[in-house]
Design goal:
The complex is a heterodimer.
Chain A lengths: L3 H14 L4 E9 L4 E8 L6 H4 L18 H10 L5 E6 L3 E9 L11 H11 L4 E8 L2 E6 H8 L7 H19 L3
Parallel strand pairs in A: 1-5
Antiparallel strand pairs in A: 1-2, 2-4, 3-4, 5-6
Chain B lengths: L1 H21 L6 E5 L2 H6 L1 H14 L6 E5 L11 E4 L4 E5 L4 H13 L11 E2 L2 E2 L4 E2 L1
Helix pairs in contact in B: 3-4
Classes of the chains: A alpha+beta, B alpha+beta.
């Protein structure tokens, strides 16, 4: 994966397959502390303890269309290769939480990449599930919550091109704003 | 985000009138493979371009969604087009440039873009329609 935003898109697809209704994505960046972390939390069906032990083994997957499962394995390798750590915790019937941290200035840390496109693609693939995306950059933060949009528009799905275009611009501008140099 | 949301609502209300006028002809459903293999191969730019084209060409009867791993990871990014009879055409090795042609010829014109389908074997095209 060339961008961390692609890992994020990939991991959240697990949440959707686990029938999550709410996915919380938090990205936290601090330049002075040289810190970069990604947290994805869902209220999906959860992973049994037995399976959780080898969930990052690439030769373990629950799918039947192929015999390898690379999503979590790749994300784990990305963070551990950048002086960070990877953590997954899960409770059956409650949900799953995945955390990956990175040294922000590590030479091997992939750029975050295009979060606006990742968010739009997530919304397109989420069906009626909701997304809360919080991005903290140094001391500023940006929050995007699909529940607010649905409430305002009185719709249950945001998978309409005009809404998606607006979301893309909203995320792009929101992130630009918090990352502006003072 | 209160102010911008009001703006979105206004855009939306204008659009909804158009949608009501045009609804209910040839409902294509387009799905993009969005598992690890698809994403790593470039499914996201294909999905985003598809969204842009559907918006630009005002294709109100087309729905775009995602699917998991189809099982032929080496052919990703894969895009499947289902027509109203649930007949499926599978496009492989897709790019944002190729998707524009698929939108123009297949979703607008109703004509399958044979050369991008999975059914090109040794340069020969096998019937691209598969009963789902």
């Amino acid at each position: 994966m060339k961008e961390l935003s692609l890992h994020i898109l990939d991991i959240t697809q697990n949440s959707i397959r686990a029938q999550a209704t709410l996915v919380k994505l938090t990205i936290s960046e601090s330049v002075p502390e040289n810190h970069f972390s990604i947290t994805i939390e869902d209220d999906g069906c959860g992973i049994p303890a037995e399976q959780l032990k080898n969930v990052t083994d690439p030769f373990v997957t629950t799918r039947t269309t192929r015999r390898v499962g690379l999503g979590l394995s790749l994300f784990k390798a990305a963070s551990e290769g950048c002086g960070g750590y990877f953590e997954i915790s899960s409770t059956v019937g409650v949900g799953t939480k995945v955390v990956g941290t990175f040294l922000r200035d590590h030479i091997d840390r992939a750029p975050l990449g295009n979060m606006a496109d990742t968010v739009v693609t997530m919304v397109m693939s989420f069906g009626e599930a909701d997304l809360v995306y919080e991005h903290d950059y140094n001391k500023k933060s940006f929050i995007f919550d699909t529940r607010e949009i649905k409430e305002t528009l009185e719709v249950t799905s945001l998978n309409e091109p005009d809404i998606l275009n607006w979301i893309r611009e909203f995320v792009r501008e929101g992130l630009e704003e918090i990352m502006e140099e003072e | 985000m209160a102010k911008s949301l009001a703006e979105l609502k206004a855009i939306r209300e204008k659009k909804l009138n158009e949608i009501n006028l045009r609804h209910g002809k040839n409902g294509y459903r387009v799905v993009v493979g969005m598992a690890t293999c698809g994403i790593a191969a470039g499914a996201r730019p294909v999905m985003v371009k598809l969204m842009e084209e559907v918006e630009a060409k005002n294709l109100v009867d087309v729905t775009v969604a995602q699917t998991g791993c189809i099982g032929v990871c080496r052919l990703e990014p894969i895009v499947e087009v289902y027509d109203e009879n649930n007949e499926k055409v599978t496009y492989v090795h897709m790019t944002p440039e190729k998707i524009v042609k698929v939108v123009d010829e297949h979703l607008v014109g109703g004509k399958v873009v044979d050369e991008y389908t999975m059914t090109v074997v040794d340069g020969k095209i096998v019937d691209p329609k598969i009963k789902a």
